[in-house]
Write a structure and sequence with these properties.
This protein is about 45% helix and about 20% strand. It is an alpha/beta fold. Strands 1-2-4-3-5-6-7-8 form an 8-stranded mixed sheet, sandwiched between helices. Helix 1 runs parallel beside helix 11 (about 250-260) and helix 5 (about 145-155) runs antiparallel to helix 7 (about 165-175). The protein starts with a strand and ends in a 5-residue tail after the last helix. The structure holds D-malate (MLT). D-malate binds near residues 28, 94 and 95.
Length: about 270
């Protein structure tokens, strides 16, 4: 399905129980909504489940590629408005988690719960900004495939290339389907995003933090720092997984997700 949000077509799925609490699964960069297929199927019997392709990703429009991070948050709220969903549980992985954190900072009254996967609250360091600049150069000079190879090496735990090769292929395919304009626009938005750390102690909704044991992009130390600041939050380290813990080791990921999600249904 598609929705017109801020002048862009955003592709989404809306499944599960229509009268149940809604949960939105927000994908990371530079993937698309298909990374949540397994978790969506798991949640559908008890929740209304929304997945969507963020601007510049998957099937959604790319637009002019001139993005600020806030635009991704505008898109989330715009989609919720189109779908007439007032309050929602947000589950975001990595960039999806950055969106979720900024969304609750901006509109806490619309958020019922948070599931923060392989993500962090801090804004980009100077080193990170320079890495984003190098990544933009790679995309512009060598193309998306060269960027994808470097990204895959950083994202997956080394063992995952042998143990879950189909998952690596699925993610490679999603990255390659994205345009260089969307990828570069998102890299610039990521480099200039705001820091949500000081807001964490104000979070008053049930929050679960999940992180892959070998996540090298948003490591367990970043997850622990959020866990310490978010009151009454829960945290679990997903063993034998890197940055894509929901795909690299879905069994423990799904069981923590489901156990946490039960809080929202009576
Ligand atoms: C992601 O998975 O969304 C990205 O790795 C986020 C980032 O690069 O900061």
């Amino acid at each position: 399905m598609e929705a017109l949000v801020k002048g862009l077509k955003l592709f989404y799925t809306d499944s599960g129980k229509s009268n149940a609490p809604a949960i939105v699964l927000i994908h990371g960069f530079p993937f698309d909504r298909t990374m949540w297929q397994e978790q969506a199927a798991l949640l559908e019997p008890s929740f209304r489940v929304i997945t969507y392709d963020q601007r510049g990703h998957g099937q959604s429009d790319v637009g002019d590629g001139q993005y600020l991070f806030e635009f991704f948050v505008d898109d989330l709220f715009g989609l919720l408005d189109v779908l007439r969903i007032d309050r929602v549980i947000l589950c975001g992985l990595s960039m999806g988690g950055y969106v979720a954190l900024r969304a609750i900072e901006r509109c806490p009254e619309r958020i019922l719960g948070l599931i923060l996967c392989d993500t962090r609250s801090e804004a980009e360091t100077d080193e990170g900004k320079l890495k984003r600049a190098a990544a933009v150069h790679t995309v512009q000079d060598k193309g998306v495939p060269a960027f994808a190879e470097g990204f895959l090496k950083a994202a997956f735990a080394p063992a995952s290339f042998k143990e879950t090769p189909l998952v690596v292929e699925q993610i490679r395919k999603s990255i390659l389907e994205n345009s260089s304009r969307g990828i570069c626009g998102t890299l610039i938005a990521l480099a200039t995003r705001t820091d949500t750390t000081s807001f964490l102690p104000s979070i008053r909704v049930p929050s679960l933090i999940l992180v892959g044991e070998y996540d090298g992009i948003t490591p367990p130390s970043a997850a622990k720092a959020m866990h310490q600041r978010i009151p009454d939050s829960e945290m679990a380290i997903i063993p034998n997984a890197g940055h894509l813990s929901n795909l690299e080791n879905s069994l423990p990921f799904n069981s923590r997700l489901l156990e946490f999600a039960k809080k929202f249904i009576s």
